[in-house]
Design a protein that fits this description.
Layout (H helix, E strand, L loop, with lengths): L3 E7 L3 E8 L4 E8 L5 H20 L4 E8 L2 E3 L4 E4 L11 H9 L3 E5 H12 L8 E6 L3 E7 L2 E2 L31 H4 L1 H10 L9 H9 L3 H25 L3 E6 L5 H15 L9 E4 L6 H15 L10
Parallel strand pairs: 1-4, 4-7, 8-11, 11-12
Antiparallel strand pairs: 1-2, 2-3, 5-6, 8-9, 9-10
Helix pairs in contact: 1-2, 3-9, 5-6, 5-7, 6-7, 7-8
C-alpha cells in the first residue's frame, strides 16, 4: 500500500468522495446525491460511512487524512461553515470536529473553489507554476488564488471572491447588494437570464439552450456569450494588473462555449491590461474539470503535514 488521502467535495446537489495517492494517482471515486432530510448529522453520517469503506480497502495506516471542500465561507480555526446558500442547516455546524471525532484522523476543511484551485496547482494545468488564479463558472462565479503553492485566504478567509468583482459600475443587481458583479454577467445563470431578456430562450431559460442556439447561428444568442466574454476579460485584466501572475484558469459548465466567449474575453484583456504585466501570461481552460476539487481536497492533508500547517494559515 502507498500513502493516500481522501478528498471530499460536499455540494448542495452531490457528495463526491475520492481516494488519491500521494503521487496523484486516482485510486477510486464515488458520487452520491446529497440529502438534507436528516440535517447536517445525516450528511456527515453518509460521509463517514464512505470514508470508512475506503480506508478499509486501502488501509488505515496509509491514510494521511481527509480534506473537505465546502461551498461558502469557512472559519478555518473553528472548523465550521459560517454561511452557505447550498448547505441548509450547516451554518455554525462544527463539521470538522464532528467528522474528526468519529474517524479519529486529521480533517482539513476548505472552501470548494480554493480546493479546486489547489487541485489544479497540484495535478492540473498549474503544475509548473507557483502562482495562479482559478475562476470557476457555474450558477455563480467563484475563484481561488494560489500564491507560492498555497491558498491565499485573507485575514477573514474570504479572499478570492472573484465573482463579486465589479465589472460594470451600473450593471445588473446582485444578491450581495452590489451592482455589476462578474457573476451577474458571466455565470451560467447570467447567460440564461440574458437569453431570456433577449427573448431567445424558451421556458427553461437554460444556459445550455442559449448555447445550442448560438451554435446554430442565432446572432442574439452569440451576442450573449460575447457579452459574457467581455465581462470575463475585464475581470481578468484587473487580476493581471493587480497580481501579475503567470496563469489564469477557467473551469465550469460554460467552458464548452469557449470558442463563443473567448475572442471578446481576450480582446478585453488585450485592451485593459498593462502590456508588460501580461507578457508571458497564460489564460487557459483548467484541466481537471469537476475533479479539481477532489484533488485539491485530498492534497490538503499532505500539505498540512508537510509544511507546518500552511493550509490553516489565514493570510500572507
Amino acid at each position: 500500500m502507498s500513502a493516500y488521502a481522501i478528498g471530499v467535495d460536499l455540494g448542495g446537489t452531490n457528495l463526491r468522495v475520492a481516494a488519491i495517492a500521494q503521487d496523484g494517482r486516482l485510486l477510486e471515486k464515488h458520487a452520491f446525491t446529497t440529502t438534507f432530510t436528516n440535517g447536517p448529522q445525516g450528511v456527515v453520517g453518509e460521509m463517514v460511512k464512505v470514508i470508512n469503506q475506503i480506508r478499509g480497502r486501502w488501509g488505515a495506516a496509509d491514510l494521511h487524512g481527509v480534506g473537505i471542500g465546502v461551498p461558502g465561507f469557512i472559519d478555518m480555526d473553528a472548523g465550521v461553515v459560517l454561511g452557505s446558500a447550498n448547505l441548509p442547516g450547516f451554518q455554525g455546524f462544527p463539521i470538522r470536529d464532528e467528522i474528526q471525532n468519529r474517524l479519529g484522523i486529521t480533517i482539513v476543511l476548505e472552501n470548494d473553489a480554493n480546493a479546486a484551485a489547489l487541485g489544479e496547482k497540484w495535478m492540473g494545468a498549474g503544475k509548473e507554476v507557483l502562482d495562479l488564479i482559478l475562476i470557476t463558472l457555474g450558477t455563480g462565479v467563484g475563484g481561488g488564488i494560489i500564491v507560492d503553492g498555497k491558498i491565499l485566504r485573507g485575514f477573514l478567509g474570504m479572499a478570492g471572491e472573484i465573482g463579486h468583482m465589479t465589472v460594470y459600475a451600473d450593471g445588473n443587481p446582485c444578491g450581495c447588494g452590489n451592482h455589476g458583479c462578474l457573476e451577474k454577467h458571466a455565470s451560467a445563470s447570467a447567460i440564461a437570464a440574458m437569453g431570456g431578456m433577449m427573448g431567445i430562450a424558451r421556458e427553461t431559460f437554460s444556459a445550455r439552450e442559449v448555447y445550442e442556439l448560438a451554435l446554430g447561428g442565432n446572432v442574439r444568442a452569440k451576442s450573449v456569450f460575447e457579452s459574457a466574454g467581455r465581462a470575463l476579460g475585464i475581470a481578468i485584466a484587473n487580476l493581471i494588473n493587480l497580481f501579475n501572475f503567470p496563469l489564469y484558469l477557467l473551469s465550469g459548465g460554460p467552458l464548452p462555449a469557449w470558442d463563443l466567449f473567448a475572442p471578446t474575453m481576450f480582446a478585453e484583456v488585450q485592451k485593459r491590461s498593462f502590456t508588460y504585466a501580461r507578457g508571458g501570461t497564460r489564460i487557459e481552460k483548467a484541466l481537471l474539470g469537476g475533479d479539481a476539487g477532489l484533488f485539491g481536497a485530498a492534497y490538503l492533508p499532505f500539505q498540512h503535514q508537510a509544511a507546518g500547517d500552511p493550509c490553516l494559515a489565514s493570510s500572507r
